[in-house]
Amino acid sequence: MPDSIKGTKITPPQGRSFPLGATPVGDGFNFSLFSRTAQGVELLLFDHEADAKPSHILRLDPVTNRTYHYWHIHVPGIRAGRLYGYRVQGPFDPANGLRFDPGKVLLDPYGRGVVVPKGYSRDAVGRPDSGAASFMKSVAVAPSTYDWEGDEPLALPSSRTIIYEMHVRGFTRHPSSGLEDGKRGTYAGLIQKIPYLKSLGVTAVELMPVHQFDALDGPPGKTNYWGYAPIAFFAPHRAYSSRQDPLGPVDEFRDMVKALHRAGIEVILDVVYNHTTEGNHDGPTLSFRGIDNPTYYILEPDPSRYTNYTGCGNTLNANHPVVRRMIVDSLRYWVNEMHVDGFRFDLASILSRDESGRPLPNPPVLWDIESDPALAGTKLLAEAWDAAGLYQVGSFIGDAWKEWNGRFRDDARAFFRCDPGSVRRIADRIIGSPEIYGHKQREAEQSVNFVTCHDGFTLNDLVSYNAKHNEANGEDNRDGGNDNASWNCGVEGPTDDPAVEKLRNRQVKNFLTVTLLSLGVPMVLMGDEVRHTQNGNNNAYCQDNEISWFDWTRVEKHADVHRFLKLLVERRALRDVEHERQRTSLTAMIQQATKAWHGVTLLQPDWGDDSRSVALGGELRREGLRFHLILNANHDALDFELPNLEGGRPWRRWIDTALDSPQDIVPWQAASPVPGATYRAQAHSVVMLFTDGGK
Fold first, then answer.
1. 477-to-213, 229, 481 alpha-carbon distances in Å
2. Residue 194 lies inside a defined structural domain of this protein
3. Across-strand partners of 46?
4. Strand ranges, E, within 70-125
5. Cα gap 665→510, rounded to integer Å
């Protein structure tokens, strides 16, 4: 991008050490880079992303352009959109943890934008003779120039939050999306599908990684579709933008956030602060490794090797003061300048490890995040485990963090598969998992309840396959989890058998019902509402194709499931929020609640290992509502006794997943009375009865 410095000689002024990154100051930009071990730094300015040589090389003086470990310079005449990178000099000494390579063009760790030249490849940038044309470049961004038109993060109450986990590209990339080619798979494409999200009733989208990642960090011949390969924690992923100019992704992402907020939908980012795409000792040098390797990464006792708690080759040194600062600065940026509403932290337990990899009782970075005033109103969701065996569901550090409740997923699957002893566990999950969270004296919404997510089977495949089928990944079906707690309902894979298909549909609705009605924050995976299938692939991280993309023809094909979820969400969104405002703990809520557990006989629940059914009756006093929830995972129908109601009032049926649509769920006020003192719950079904206000 041309600007006023083109063709002129620049005398490097001193600049300043703060803030880090490229920041508009006066008539230009200030650049600041941290490197404790560098011996020299050059700032490179480029006119175009594929330039073989920089237009300007600014050598930073180690005396006048350095303060402590911060290298800095102010360049007049720079405008937003200018491309830049760094060359950093120092020893290449892996035995001592140093991997400097002055032949590499390095991304700014604080860069707000990234361009990726067509000639980029991991092999190309790894060659000793690789030229500048092969490397990604950072983009100078002036965040304050965007017109937000009064937009602010929504701060919706968690007790009325329904999360929809989704992939930006996958949501609209399929030809059936009806979008023009240039918009499919982009932030702009998602904007055009907001009416669908609004009609579904979800209140938050949890976007799979949108930080700039390396899509080529995947198996040979395949892409890294999911995006868990970050390289720039401040930059929106360029390939998700329909605009080709350097500033396009930044502005288009903001357009998307603003449009979602106008529809009343929050934006939660899935963030990956546990590793980078630079991988292990054989990986490419793109940024952090060539700037200050021992600061940014946890190294093994042999410093030439990287500790791998992530399963991705390296581990960020998250509790180092400089890396902690980068993580918090990144989060602040996405809240203050990009207006996002919250974050889901991938493999969050890694953030509790020290520089030796040992779990800390009070990890500084987690408390930094929680105590930062700019982040006080955001939703913080932890995936409370890592790839090295650390599992902290129920014990994750902090007072504000919510947790992906992996045990909810496991126990819901076990119950509807009729596993022994599962009835006790599903009962605990329905009432907010007090067995896991009661000791913390936290609100019920600490638990994020889900049955499926991006990692693993879709809901359709959970009820259609007993085993994973990952052959398309090219790893001989060795990848992905082997224990999925799935049940194919009698046939492996697709079937024309109407009885099997009906049972699968019922099981899908069972899982959706339990997820939406249990205490906690419910999360639904993109496409589950239309029975999206990945053909049994439970690790589709490298499948940027119709295996992963949302097929919009299924909205009509599986309209009954789509309708079922809409009506579930419609009622869920009316939940009382007073307990959250008053900070009422889960334990206190349960103690104050009027409730009772039942079996087929009132007040006689069967908690034995062979039990496959349970019922919960209760009263929601604020809503003037009594309910009776029946779960029957047995292979046979059962008759459940019903409590007598005052004045001979009847129970009304809202949900019976064994019934055909539209009787499987009805609009709340259209619920019809059910006669008699018992209710027959069919095999593999969930029933919800209620009565309110004498109606």
1. 25, 22, 10
2. no
3. 83
4. 70-76, 83-89, 92-93, 98-99, 113-115
5. 12
* Residue 638, beta-bridge partner list: 681
Phi, psi angle pair for 572, to nearest 5°? -60, -40
CA distance 266 to 249: 19
**Residue labelled with tokens 């980012």:** 269
Helix axes 321-336, 364-371, angle to 10 degrees: 30
Contact 606, 638 (CB under 8 A): no
Q: Which stretches of the chain drop beneath a pLDDT of 70?
A: 1-12, 573-592, 693-695
Dihedral angle computed from the Cα positions of residues 489, 493, 496 and 502, in that order, rounded to the nearest 10 degrees: 30
Domain boundary among 122, 145, 168: 145
Dist CA 310 CA 183 (whole Å) = 34
> Which tokens go with 166?
């989704």
Q: What pLDDT is attached to residue 584?
A: 63
The partner residues of 447 in beta bridges, in order of sequence, read 403
CA dist 557 and 371 (Å) reads 48
Class of residue 528 by CB neighbours under 10 A (exposed 0-12, middle 13-18, buried 19+): buried
pLDDT in the model for residue 131: 84
The type of residue at 159 is S
If we measure between CA atoms, which residue out of 402, 457, 448 comes closest to residue 429? 448
Catalytic (active site) residue 346: yes
Distance CA(145)–CA(152), nearest Å, equals 16
φ and ψ at residue 496, rounded to 5 degrees = -100, 5
Give the C-alpha separation, 688 to 233, whole Å.
45
- Residue that has been written with the tokens 């999950």 in this structure: 429
Query: Each residue of 349-385: b (16+ CB within 10 Å) or e?
Result: bbbbbebebeeeeebbbbebbeeeeebeebbbbbbbb
Asked, as a colleague might, if the bond just before 662 is cis with ω within 30 of 0, I would say yes
> Could you say which of 383, 528, 529, 656 is catalytic?
383
pLDDT in tens, 365-403: 999 999 999 999 899 999 999 999 999 999 999 999 999
Q: Total structural domains in the chain? A: 2
145, 170, 199: which is the final residue of a domain?
Answer: 145
At 40, which amino acid appears?
A: G
CATH for 60? 2.60.40.10
**What amino acid is encoded at 595 in this protein?**
K
Separation CA 111–CA 80 (nearest Å):
12
Residue 129's pLDDT is 74
φ/ψ of residue 252, rounded to 5: -70, -35
What whole-number distance in Å separates Cα of residue 402 and Cα of residue 379?
8
CA dist 365 and 646 (Å) reads 55
| d(C-alpha 34, C-alpha 31), whole Å | 10
Res 8: pLDDT: 47
In a domain, 435, yes or no: no
Which residues share a beta bridge with 359? 353
Tokens at 352, concatenated: 């509790």
Is the pTM here over 0.90, yes or no?
A: yes
- Domain holding 78, by residue range, is 21-145
In a domain, 114, yes or no: yes
433 belongs to a structural domain: no
**Rounded Cα distance, 626 and 513, in Å:** 18
From the candidates 49, 108, 251, 346, give the one annotated as an active-site residue.
346
